């Protein structure tokens, strides 16, 4: 149940990919023989499927190694190309590190970056974006859906106001595409980052949507070489992975409505089963404007990593510091104003295509048993039972 | 992160989870850490007249390594004198549990918890000496 981290490759996707490792091994850039033509045709068909899923045209899809590269290309490429026009970028605090760390790198190169705050649900206020735009602003980057708490951003409104102000709008759509409707026209998006492995495709392949008209977006490449992808991203194309990405996009487009309501029902059932048995469980993220498969809960007085250990055969993740290499608790929950003790107590469930009803029952049972066991050994729960609010105690300095 | 087998084993079946009455004169309570940091350990010792730790209990809010460290030290201090318990070092705990560097702070916290419990017990003994130890009066 950690489908936000990655998803398994759909068997239908794998079946489409396999021939491209063996008999159809051609280089899509080889123009002189049938192996190359076949590979090129397969890549172009995949590109069309990816474009179709987001309401774009194939020529607007730049294939990359994943959403991380797409974010880097969008932010660095646009600011570099528009350097003579301005040097200001607006983003927000709960973006993926692929955006935030790229922004930090841009700051070292003299670009000014505004990191907007979010409300307690993790949403940015479109008015705050409008207020932050200056004459020097060249790009706004706000994600479609957050990878930790599933919160959907008001990107349609943000896109519209950027369009009105003549500022380009990029969205990291890695978590949302294939799960919720996303259309570059309806949402007023100029650039969008996609990743295949978040939608039952292979890892290491993604795309950047780059608008070709109204307005035409130009950018400076970050990977130089043979001029592939219309000069925006050089390098021999990973044909099998791209074919898989295309198939994954096609399946997502066809099955999204039924799939997202099925997954949402499972997610809601999981929340119901857990909260029926446990008190002091806080739901993080937006109650309605969220990814159908995302459930992020804080179990007061229970440390997230210990809880993950108590349900070891289930894959979930936690905002607890103990799970991160840096020993810092989740910056996303922090930006939302969740107190650190509840951030340490948070668990992210990400339901996906291959989760079934029985798993939800099983996971709910494990969570309930684990929380009860850990609360019985929690000094904070004991204090709370004795009527002392742990938050009122003067704890030693960290 | 992958856990060592000792940590897993102890977390499956932690020893000495529980509490003694905090106000009892022969009980020392140490609470260390902070919820905002993700670790709070409460360690209690019950000390006999001969300065031997007869029993120990803990409650811990924290990751698996923190729980395992607390459980381990409650086992270690039982039957030890106060002075022997004070000699327990975090490296002993970290070595026994094969804690990775990033988890060593859990063993530091466990060492601090023993010390805090012992100091609490000493403080109580000093303050309560006339009533709890009349038999030692000349
Ligand atoms: C919102 C978001 N952006 C970017 C990425 C990075 O994607 P990729 O693994 O394809 O580089 C992820 C996945 O971790 C993500 O969730």
Topology, element by element:
The complex is a heterodimer of chains A (398) and B (138).
Chain A: H1 11-17, H2 34-53, E1 61-64, H3 67-81, E2 88-92, H4 97-108, E3 112-116, H5 126-132, E4 137-141, H6 155-165, E5 168-172, E6 191-195, E7 206-210, H7 239-277, E8 281-283, E9 294-299, H8 304-310, E10 317-318, H9 331-335, H10 340-343, E11 346-350, H11 357-376, H12 379-385
Helix pairs in contact in A: 1-7, 2-7, 3-4, 5-6, 7-11
Chain B: H1 5-12, E1 27-34, E2 39-47, E3 53-61, H2 64-77, H3 82-86, H4 90-97, H5 104-132
Antiparallel strand pairs in B: 1-2, 2-3
The complex binds pyridoxal-5'-phosphate.
Pyridoxal-5'-phosphate (PLP) binds next to helix 3 of chain A.
Mean pLDDT over the residues of chain B? 88
The helical percent of chain A reads 25-40%
First-last Cα distance of chain B: 59 Å
Rg of chain A, nearest Å:
22 Å
CATH superfamily of the largest domain in chain A: Type I PLP-dependent aspartate aminotransferase-like (Major domain)
Task: Summarize the helix and strand pattern of chain A as letters.
Answer: HHEHEHEHEHEEEHEEHEHHEHH
The CATH architecture assignment of the largest domain in chain A turns out to be 3-Layer(aba) Sandwich
What is the average per-residue confidence, as pLDDT of chain A, rounded to a whole number? 94
Largest sheet of chain B: 3 strands, antiparallel
Number of strands of chain B: 3
């Amino acid at each position: 149940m950690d489908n936000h981290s990655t998803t398994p490759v759909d068997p239908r996707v794998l079946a489409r990919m396999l021939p491209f490792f063996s008999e159809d091994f051609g280089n899509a850039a080889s123009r002189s023989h049938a192996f190359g033509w076949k590979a090129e045709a397969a890549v172009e068909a995949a590109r069309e499927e990816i474009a179709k899923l987001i309401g774009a045209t194939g020529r607007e899809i730049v294939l990359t190694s994943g959403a991380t590269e797409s974010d880097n290309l969008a932010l660095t490429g646009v600011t570099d190309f528009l350097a003579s026009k301005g040097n200001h970028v607006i983003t927000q605090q709960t973006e993926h590190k692929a955006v935030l760390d790229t922004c930090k790198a841009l700051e070292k190169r003299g670009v000014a970056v505004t990191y907007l705050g979010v409300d307690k649900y993790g949403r940015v206020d479109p008015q705050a974006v409008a207020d932050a735009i200056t004459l020097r602003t060249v790009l706004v980057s706000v994600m479609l859906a957050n990878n930790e708490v599933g919160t959907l951003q008001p990107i349609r409104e943000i896109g519209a106001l950027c369009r009105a102000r003549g500022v380009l709008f990029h969205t990291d759509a890695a978590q949302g595409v294939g799960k919720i409707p996303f259309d570059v026209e309806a949402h007023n998006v100029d650039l969008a980052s996609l990743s295949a492995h978040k939608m039952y495709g292979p890892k290491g392949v993604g795309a950047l949507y780059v608008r070709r008209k109204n307005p035409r977006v130009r950018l400076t490449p970050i990977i130089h070489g043979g001029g592939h992808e219309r000069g925006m991203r050089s390098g021999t194309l990973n044909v099998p992975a791209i074919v898989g990405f295309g198939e994954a996009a096609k399946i997502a487009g066809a099955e999204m409505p039924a799939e997202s309501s099925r997954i949402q029902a499972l997610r809601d059932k999981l929340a119901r089963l857990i909260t029926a048995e446990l008190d002091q469980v806080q739901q993080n993220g937006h109650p309605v404007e969220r990814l159908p498969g995302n459930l992020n809960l804080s179990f007061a007085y229970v440390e997230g990593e210990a809880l993950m250990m108590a349900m070891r055969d289930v894959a979930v993740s936690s905002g607890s510091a103990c799970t991160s290499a840096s020993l810092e608790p989740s910056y996303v929950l922090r930006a939302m104003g969740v107190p650190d003790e509840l951030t340490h107590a948070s668990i992210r469930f990400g339901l996906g295509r291959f989760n079934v009803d029985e798993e939800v029952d099983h996971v709910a049972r494990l969570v309930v048993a684990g929380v009860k066991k850990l609360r019985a050994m929690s000094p904070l729960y004991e204090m709370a039972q004795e009527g002392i609010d742990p938050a009122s105690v003067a704890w030693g300095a960290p | 992160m992958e856990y060592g087998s000792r940590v897993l084993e102890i977390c499956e079946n932690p020893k000495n989870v529980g509490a003694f009455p905090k106000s009892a004169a022969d009980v020392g309570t140490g609470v260390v850490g902070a919820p905002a940091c993700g670790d709070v350990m409460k360690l209690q010792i019950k000390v006999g007249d001969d300065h031997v730790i007869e029993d120990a209990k803990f409650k811990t809010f924290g990751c698996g390594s923190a729980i395992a460290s607390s459980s381990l030290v409650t086992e270690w201090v039982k039957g030890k004198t106060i002075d022997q318990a004070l000699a327990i070092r975090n490296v002993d705990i970290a070595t026994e549990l094969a804690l990775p560097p990033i988890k060593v702070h859990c063993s530091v916290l466990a060492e601090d918890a023993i010390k805090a419990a012992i100091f609490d017990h000493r403080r109580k003994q000093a303050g309560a000496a006339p009533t709890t130890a009349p038999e030692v009066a000349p």
